[in-house]
Q: What sequence folds into this?
């Protein structure tokens, strides 16, 4: 039960904090709130094939693909430090919020 609650909160925070990143990249902000479409658009934003979003449907594999997507998103906005990459893997809304606040 706790894992389900954490997952729901994480996905909601991921969508909320990625909206400014979408807008900076020229993608419509509402797409950040649509489950599945947000992962597809984020993958396109960093240059992955659309099939990467489908890998997020498979258990265990999805952790690795989401971690890779988060690190690529952070790096595409010029954050190359180890701390930024580690935060993107551990709890992505933190660096996404920081990037969204940068002007």
A:
């Amino acid at each position: 039960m706790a894992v389900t609650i954490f997952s729901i909160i994480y996905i909601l925070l991921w969508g909320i904090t990625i909206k400014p990143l979408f807008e900076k990249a020229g993608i419509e902000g509402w797409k950040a709130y649509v489950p599945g479409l947000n992962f597809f658009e984020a993958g396109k934003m960093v240059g992955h094939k659309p099939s990467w979003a489908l890998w997020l449907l498979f258990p265990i594999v999805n952790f690795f693909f989401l971690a890779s997507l988060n690190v690529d998103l952070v790096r595409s906005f010029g954050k190359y430090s180890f701390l930024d990459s580690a935060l993107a893997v551990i709890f992505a809304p933190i660096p996404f919020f920081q990037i969204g606040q940068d002007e």
